[in-house]
Amino acid sequence: MTENTAAFLAVILAAAATYALRLGGLLLAGKLPDTGRARRFMDALPGTILLSIVVPASVSLGPWGWFASACTIACMRLTGNVLAAMLSGVVIMALSRAL
Amino acid sequence: MQPSSPPSPSSPPPAPFSQLQKGFAANLVVAASVAAYGSVFGLLAAQKGIGWGQLLFMNLTIFAGSAQFVMVDMWQPPLPVAEIALAVLVINTRYLLIGASLRQLFAGTTLTHKALVMHLVTDENWAVTLAAASKRPVDTYFMLGGGLCILMAWCAGSLFGNQVGALLGNPERLGLDFAFTAVFTALLCSFWRGGRDLLPWLTAAAVALVVEQAVPGSKWYIPAGGLSGALCAALMPAHAAGKDRKQT
Fold first, then answer.
1. Residue A38 lies in a domain
2. Total domains, chain A
3. Least CB-CB distance to A25: which of B84, B100, B188?
4. Helical H segments across chain B, by residue range
5. Does a structural domain hold residue A35?
6. Would you call B118 and A44 a contact, using CB atoms and an 8 Å cutoff?
7. Rounded CA gap, B150 and B156, in Å?
């Protein structure tokens, strides 16, 4: 197998896996009932996934990460503006590294 | 300005194009960070001998930033094809849950429509779309517009980095590595549905942290946390799940 073939194969396999997960999740969820526990499971998913992305990322940055996250939330509650909230967190992390 | 065609008296028409535009615009903020990180990615790819054509092909077929970073990191001849595919599968397992969480948004759409739009669902436009959906009616074209916005930013950034160099020497010095976490944290505020979320969210956070410590360097913690938190919500007694969430 030449390097070019291998590269093509690697990309195609990675793409197929990713696409299968994306579409597969949606189609499989369609098989679940729309009431009761299954419904509560589905309704809770967005929040719990996003939280699982955010919490370890923030914790791994130490106290400054916590502080930046807290400021981001506070800024979001105050202004309702995602850009302002993001900037507050980013500026705090930048400052912490400049110190 | 169209006197010939009277405005339709029926309630707001679907207007896919306007939703597409709104979704595109709503993702511009996060797209700026995507472009900055794209330029870093493009530069790394150039250092591994990946040209712009291969890069573009990768972006358009895979379209998953963190998985592509890992892929390029493993890009060492002879290419470990199976290992690369497996690593991408693990990192992107979260998309199984992300796809599942979109069932309501996609309700009533055709299989072709689902198959086309799902390819352009990333963490970014997924979170932006669901956050918007908690405030106003939003459909899959909003998601598609966001996906196109993110795709353009990712391609523009990575091609620039590949051909010219990184837009910003060290994004971490500028705190930009925190930009994604910050956007997701801000969006998280609109995902909170009240007290009934407390236990599921604590479960998700705790499991994600434990799994991240137990399996460092992988992304298993995202599906593990998301799944356990949602299971917790499912197992809670129905009355604790609070009022009906069908209408807001």
1. no
2. 1
3. B100
4. 16-26, 28-47, 52-61, 65-73, 81-91, 94-100, 111-118, 123-133, 140-163, 179-188, 198-214, 221-235
5. no
6. no
7. 10
Rg (alpha carbons) of chain B, rounded to whole number? 20
Residues A84, B55: Cα–Cα separation, whole Å: 32
Sequence-distant (6+) residues with CB within 8 A of B185 are A54, A58, A69, A72, A73, A76, A85, A89
Mean pLDDT of chain B: 88
Interchain CB distance below 8 Å, A97 and B225:
no
C-beta of residue B98 within 8 angstroms of C-beta of residue A25 = yes
So what's the pLDDT on residue B174?
83
Please state whether the peptide bond connecting residue B171 to the residue before it is cis, i.e. omega within 30 degrees of 0.
Answer: no
Can you give the pTM of this predicted structure? 0.85
d(C-alpha B203, C-alpha A32), whole Å: 23
User: What is the pLDDT at residue B58?
Assistant: 97
Domain ranges, residue A15: 1-30+45-98
Asked if the structure places residue A37 within a domain, the reply is no
SS3 B138: coil
Asked whether residue A82 is assigned to any structural domain, the reply reads: yes
- Closest residue by Cα to residue A57 from A46, A73, A68: A68
* Residue A98 burial class via C-beta count within 10 angstroms: exposed 0-12, middle 13-18, buried 19 and up: exposed
Is A47 in Cβ contact with B188 (below 8 Å)?
yes
CA gyration radius, chain A: 20
Residues B131 and B190: their CA atoms lie apart, in Å, by 6
- C-alpha closest to that of B182 among A87, A47, A95, A74: A87
Confidence bin at B243 (pLDDT 50/70/90): very low
Q: Which among B182, B196, B180 is positioned nearest to B233, based on CA atoms?
A: B196
Within 8 A of B79 by CB-CB distance, chain A residues are: 3, 6-7, 10
